[in-house]
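Narrative summary of target 7.
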Amino acid sequence: MRPMTLISRTILRVALAICQMVIVGPGNAASVADPSGTWLTEDGRARVRVERCGVSLEQVCGFVVWMKEPADANGQPLKDQNNPDPAKRSRPLLGHQLMLGLRPAADGRFEGQIYNAENGKSYEISLRRDARDLKVRGCMLSILCASQTWTQTANALPGQLVGMTGDPAGPRADKEWAQANPSKPPTMARAAK
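Modeled conformation, tokenized:
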């Protein structure tokens, strides 16, 4: 048997690529970039559940579902005391919504706003999922930017909110997203941390 020529190998590779596109389909190929799942922040202080939201589920929202230190020195749940909205200052940090309707952008990214409870401010953010990680880039004034890599998790830690968004054992959407965010089971991650 003769070794394959360069032309034969090229034809075979193209044929395999076409078969893969037909089998996977264009709709399924796009889901690779879907950032849904539960992610451990780079500093290990929190886990954030990212899920589809909005009327037609084209956006993504994010919720704090676990915190390394969820309580103050007196054992009371940490509150969102720096929030500029006085009505939200008494809400617990565990379970609050921090990503607010990120919209799809170029190159499989999602862009929008992220809320930082430590100072009560919101920042521009973009996130992109690659094979195992979530690349998160936040900017202030579009010039001061920082990036983090979040790792997907599959296990649930003690104290982690595992219920669906809006349920008693799940995170709570902000009012502006609660009605547009239909309850659905959280996406289970494939990789364990």
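Residues 4 and 10 are 10 Å apart (CA to CA).
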